[in-house]
Design goal:
Radius of gyration: 43 Å
Structural class: alpha/beta
Number of helices: 8
Low-confidence stretches: 1-10, 23-54
Helix content: 25-40%
Strand content: 5-15%
Largest sheet: 10 strands, mixed
Shape: elongated
Distance between the termini: 184 Å
Length: about 425
């Protein structure tokens, strides 16, 4: 029995080897046939798997200047001095990083491919020296959710950059997060000088953000480090879904023109490191009316005078500002580094609304006007006799003139005097 047991497995192994050899030959023959790419319906899947005749589709080629990971569906083209977007991007890409290159222009249809990059969700184009983003640059990316254009000196951001070539007919963008940090061009590249160039730059960014209904679904917007002085009017009008807005490290001196009323989903508003000196009641009321918002105001040069009294009162009552305990006065000098929450109405010197320098100017002006008035009265006093004589002469001249008018009136009113005057003339 032991001998028979030993022969059984040997015979079975031989038959198994023969079966595998036959399957390999069958797979080789089928692979050499014209229709080898389609397995025969009469052959079982197990046979094909066993024989290894079904080959996986060939991997898509990675651009020469990039690094690709098909498993992570990520392509990185970093610091390769690229002048344009690579044309042979693999269609599986979900995360695309093209950073630190030399692309100055992003033309329309820059990502149009066959097959389309329909799975691309994250696109990072930061630090590429981009100066111009044309209309429809992201038009062929239907799944794009996150876009980063930070650290590019944009001098021409098309109003239709995120909306396609025509915002009136384009479908709303799928963007949920947009990063535009430090996209302000250097001062020597701004149009019309420094201040006028900043106003034009702010208007350009605002036009791109409020173009049609393209960014109705945008949830996060970052505009940090762009030297903004004011928020352009209606900048946020077309962003109803916004939940996170980052405006830190700008030069904002006022929020007068900005309206937050329609941002009912806003959860965080970052205004740290700006140049805010005071906030008006209209802005405070809008923030108080937003149900979930948290506003961050640290590192602003608050001027602690009578005009900030409403802000101090509001800060003491609200929970909208998490960092309110960190807010301190920057001016005047005697109030420097005092916390806003520590101030009382007596500290704010509301009796004197004018700064001391302006008060001194008004006092000096009053003295000058008083001196001029005194000199005028002195001149009148010294010439009082001449003025009196002049007044008498004017009175006599007016009286003679009126007597002449009275005489003519009497002659015209009495017919006898009229006839007498006619006869005397004859």
């Amino acid at each position: 029995m032991p001998g028979a047991g030993s022969r059984g497995p040997t015979a079975g192994d031989g038959r198994l080897r023969l079966a595998r050899l036959a399957l390999v030959l069958l797979g080789w023959v089928s692979a050499s046939a014209p229709s080898s790419s389609v397995p025969s319906s009469s052959t079982s899947p197990a046979a094909f798997l066993a024989s290894g005749s079904v080959q996986p589709p060939p991997a898509e080629r990675c651009p020469a200047a990039c690094e690709c990971s098909e498993a992570a569906r990520t392509v990185k083209c970093v610091n390769r001095n690229l002048m344009e977007v690579p044309a042979d991007l693999p269609s599986y890409v979900r995360n695309l990083f093209i950073t630190g290159n030399q692309m100055t222009v992003l033309p329309a249809g820059a990502f149009a491919r066959r097959p389309p990059l329909s799975d691309l969700a994250t696109l990072n184009l930061s630090g590429n020296h981009l100066k111009e983003v044309c209309a429809g640059a992201f038009e062929h990316l239907p799944g794009l959710r996150h876009l980063d254009l930070s650290h590019n000196p944009l001098t021409n951001l098309s109003a239709f950059a995120f909306a396609g070539s025509n915002a009136s007919v384009s479908a709303p963008s799928s963007l949920e997060e947009l990063f535009l940090n430090h996209i302000v061009p250097p001062e020597d590249q701004r149009q019309n000088g420094s201040f006028e160039g900043m106003v034009a730059f702010e208007g350009m960014v605002a036009a791109a953000l409020r173009s049609g209904f393209a960014l109705q679904g945008l949830q996060r917007l970052e505009l940090a480090s762009n030297h903004f002085l004011y928020l352009p009017r209606d900048l946020l009008a077309q962003l109803p879904s916004l939940s996170h807005l980052d405006l830190r490290n700008n030069s904002l001196v006022s929020l007068t023109y900005a309206s937050f009323r329609n941002l009912t989903h806003l959860e965080s508003l970052h205004l740290e490191d700006n140049a805010l000196k005071v906030l008006h009641n209209s802005t405070l009321a809008e923030w108080q009316g937003l149900p979930r918002v948290k506003v961050y105001l640290d590192n602003n040069p608050w001027v602690c005078d009578c005009y900030i009294a409403d802000l101090v009162t509001w800060l003491k009552e609200t929970e909208v500002v998490p960092d309110k305990a960190k807010l301190t006065c920057a001016f005047p000098e005697k109030m420097r580094n005092r916390g806003l929450l520590e101030l009382n109405s007596s500290d704010l010197d509301c009796d004197s609304l004018l700064p001391p320098s302006l008060q001194t100017s008004y006092v000096f002006l009053g003295i000058v006007l008083a001196l001029i008035g005194a000199i005028f009265l002195l001149v009148l006093y010294l010439n009082r006799k001449g003025i009196k004589k002049w007044m008498h002469n004017i009175r006599d001249a007016c009286r003679d003139h009126m007597e002449g008018y009275h005489y003519r009136y009497e002659i015209n009113a009495d017919p006898r005097l009229t006839n007498l005057s006619s006869n005397s003339d004859v």
